[in-house]
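Field log, afternoon session.

UNIT: design team B
ACTIVITY: writing a sequence onto a fixed backbone
BACKBONE:
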């Protein structure tokens, strides 16, 4: 279990991640992502940190991200954050889509604070 201060810090980190994706703030994302990041998209596409940052800069697709109730588990060194997500994106042809899913995120504590180490999104179908 985490103390309230650590829990709030991790949840704020997730909010910063969401804002940075919508704003295409690559510098903030670079800071939030661990150098060993492994990001698994809903399609099964896998990106390392450099690949994901390039992908985000090129696609520029998010216009909003909503999270539901998040569950946080872990210890002093590792955290697992799980819960629902709705990614609101613009496709290459300008259409707006909403992708509902469930996300598992793993974070690790580093000397400079908590960093996102792993991200796995699974689409939830009706």
């Amino acid at each position: 279990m985490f103390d309230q201060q650590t829990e709030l810090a991790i949840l704020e980190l997730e909010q910063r991640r969401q804002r940075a994706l919508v704003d295409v703030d690559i510098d903030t994302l670079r800071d939030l992502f661990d150098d060993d990041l492994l990001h698994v998209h809903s399609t099964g596409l896998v990106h390392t940190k450099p690949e994901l940052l390039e992908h985000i800069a090129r696609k520029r697709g998010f216009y909003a991200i909503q999270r539901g109730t998040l569950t946080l588990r872990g210890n002093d060194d590792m955290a697992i954050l799980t819960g629902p997500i709705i990614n609101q994106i613009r496709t290459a042809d300008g259409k707006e889509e909403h992708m509902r899913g469930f996300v598992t995120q793993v974070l690790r504590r580093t000397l400079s604070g908590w960093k996102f180490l792993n991200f796995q999104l699974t689409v939830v179908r009706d």
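LOG NOTE: The longest helix spans residues 4-23.
NEXT ACTIVITY: expression trials, pending approval
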